[in-house]
Amino acid sequence: MQLGMIGLGRMGGNMVQRLVAGGHEVHAYDRSPAAVEAAVGGGARGARDLRDLVAGLRTPRVVWVMVPAGQPTQDTLDELAGLMQTGDVLIDGGNSNFNDTLRRAEALRQRGLELVDAGTSGGIWGREIGYCLMVGGSERAFGLCEPAFRTLAPEDGYARVGPTGAGHFVKMVHNGIEYGLLQAYGEGYEILHAAKQFGLDLGRISALWNRGSVVRSWINELAERAFARDAELSDIRGFVEDSGEGRWTVETAVQMDVPAPVITLSLLMRIRSRQQDTFAGKVVAALRREFGGHATRKA
Asked: Is 155 a catalytic residue?
């Protein structure tokens, strides 16, 4: 099929390569001319700007937006809405809040355009092994886009999970689960690392757990790779960012009266990781000293 791709970063650029290899005609645009040149070198057709990209596509057009969530996505969709025609389809493959997706879809619908939300998981490995695509949208829009989904995903790795908004909702919860999984592995390996009396080899243990254990997983395979390079992870600071989806998962769970303690605590631990020291910790230490005479450590 023919489609446009806007945003040629780590995800978008790799997706273009996979689409081109699958025989699709991809018109690519990014604010970085170097990124566009790289896409053209890989077989895509470069565009000078959004107007040029839209003009090069046949109707009904399909344009995939792969830019950061929030205002960059909003600005891109707004500009495209003024360039496209009734029946055209826009795909938001970023980590947008599903509430924003519902609002944007209604605004685009009033202009005769359809919005498909494609929650995309696969990271830097997606180009090689495929992307898991959680898609929301109408049956008609999904059908127009399906050839691209089929190429991007591994076998059985894409699905229409519901109407517009459902894709980003499912991806939000997916990322919330990811928070909990990563935190559990992190805590487990920290306990092993702290057991100095046994001289444990984390690389060997992670490899062992990937052979028949109930905790084996792709995530643990990545842990095995990381420990094989540096068992102490000496070049990494324990500072963990979040894309926002863990926060949205927790907020949504609260709104729905669904308890989600593991995901909630894993989110709070990410926030804690960004602090060298905490005032709360200082208060607790000081109070323990005051009521129990417990020793404190100098800052």
From this structure: no
